[in-house]
Amino acid sequence: MSTFNPLRSVSAATLTVLACRLAAAQPQPEPSPVRFTLSREHAVRTEVSLPGTVQARIVSLVASEVDGLVVELAAREGQSVRKGEPLVQLRRDHLELRLEAAQAQRREAQARLKQADGRYQRSQELFASQVLSQDQLDESLYEFQAWQSRIEQLSAEIEQIQLDIRRSTVAAPADGVVVAEHTEIGEWVSQGDPVMEVISTRDLEIRVDVPEQYFPSIRPGAEAKVRFESLPGELIQGRVSSVIPSANPQARTFPLKVRISSQAGRIGAGMLAQVSFPTGRIYRATVVPKDALITRGEQRFVYTLNGNGKVDQVAVETGAGMGNWVEVQKGLEPGVKVVTRGNERLMPGQQVRGRPLEYAPP
Fold it and tell me: Tens digits of per-residue pLDDT, 56-98?
C-alpha cells in the first residue's frame, strides 16, 4: 500500500513552476524585417506564345570576282569578321607585273605624245607659211591623235589591272561570322566560284509560324517578347518586322519575322525561341511585383502578411508579364499584402515586421 509523500508532491509542483519561468525567460526571436506591396487590379492584354527559329538576316555565299590561285585564307570557320576585312587572298604577282608593264608603256606613250604635239605645232606654222602641204599637216595631226588614243587605252588597261588586283582579295560583305569554307590554299578558283559563307550577327530575326486565328491581330511593328531556353529567366524585346500574308496550305499558318538586336554572340542562327505576341483582347486581372514570386521546382508561390504579423505561403499561377509586374491568374485577389523584399528565407507562419514598398505602376 502506497503512502502519500507531501515532499515529493511539492517538489514536482516546484519543478513545473520553474520550467514555466525558464521558458518565459528565454529570449524570443526578433520578427524578420520585410517589405511588402499590395497586389492590385490592372488591365492586361492577352498574349499568345509560339515557337520560332532564329535566322540571320544576311547570309552571304561570298564568291571570287576573278580567276586565281588561293594563296591564303585570311579568315577561318567560326571567326568573326568586319565588313571589308579579307577572307581569301588570291595570287596577284602576275597582275602586278602586268601593271608595271602597262604603266611603263603609258609613260612611253606620253613621251611620244609630247613629241607628236611638238611636231604638230611646227607643222601648223609651216603649213601657214605654205612650206608643208595639207597631207603633211594631216599626217602630223593623225600621229598626235594616235598617241592620245594609245594613252587612253593603256590608262583603261591599268585601271582594269588595278581592279583585278583589288578583287584578288576577297573581302567580307558585312559584319558577321564565317560559317563555312569552300576552298583551300593551293586551289584554283574561277570567277563566280564560292569561297566562304558569312552570316551577319548584327541583326537577327526569328521566323514564327502563326496559326490562322491569330493572323488578323498581329501586324508589322508590333512588340514581341522573346525567351530562349539557353538564357533562363531572361526576356529579350523584339518587334515584328514583316508578316507574310500567304498561308502554308497544309498547316494553315502564316510566317512572320521578329527582329531582335545583337546579343554579343549569345544567340546563334538555328536556335529555338519562344515568342509572345499581344493578341488585342484586354481584361482585368490581379497583378503583383515579380519580386514577390518564389519558384521552387515547378511550384510558384508568394508570401502574404496576415493580421497576426505572420506570413502565409500562397501557391499562385502566373500569366502575362508587364515590366516589373506579373499577372496572377489564380491564388490572389487585389489588395493583399505580398512580401517583395526579404521573402527568400521566410517560412510559413514566421513572425515578420513589414514596411510598405511602392513599385511604379505596370
Answer: 888 899 999 999 999 999 999 989 899 999 999 999 999 999 9
0.70 exceeded by pTM:
no
Q: Is 263 left (phi over 0), alpha (psi -120 to 50) or beta?
A: alpha
What are the grid coordinates assigned to 317, written together?
Answer: 499561377
| Type and span of the H or E element at 9 | helix 6-25
> For residue 313, how many other CB atoms are within 10 A of its CB?
16
Report d(CA 149, CA 34) in Å as an integer. 91
CA-to-CA distance for 320 and 47, rounded, in angstroms? 7
Q: Answer yes or no: do 175 and 117 share one domain.
A: no
Contact criterion met (CB below 8 Å) for 173 and 107: no
Number of folded domains that form the chain = 4
Give the Cα-Cα-Cα angle 29, 35, 39 (nearest 5 degrees).
Answer: 130
Chain centroid to CA 211: 25
C-alpha cell at 186: 593551293
**Measuring CA to CA, which residue among 318, 319, 306 is closest to residue 352?**
306
Sheet strands side by side (includes 188-189): 169-171, 86-90, 68-73, 188-189
**Between helices 93-128 and 134-167, what is the axis angle to 10°?**
160
Q: How many whole angstroms separate alpha carbon 192 and alpha carbon 295?
A: 57
Clarify whether residues 153 and 180 are in a common domain: no
> What is the distance between the alpha carbons of residues 204 and 55, in angstroms, rounded to a whole number?
6
Read off the pLDDT of residues 2-54 as tens digits, 9 standing for 90 and up: 454 554 444 555 555 555 555 455 566 788 999 999 999 998 877 788 999 99
* Residue 5 falls inside a structural domain: no
The 10s digit of each residue's pLDDT in 262-314 is: 666 688 888 899 998 887 678 889 999 999 999 888 889 999 998 888 999 99
Residue 174 C-alpha cell reads as: 558585312
Q: Is residue 188 part of a domain?
A: yes
> At 334, which CATH number?
2.40.420.20
Q: Which domain holds residue 68?
A: 64-90+169-199
DSSP conformational letter for 249 = T
Contact 355, 35 (CB under 8 A): yes
For cell 508532491, what's the residue?
9
Q: Identify which of 320, 314, 275 has the alpha carbon closest to the alpha carbon of residue 43.
A: 320
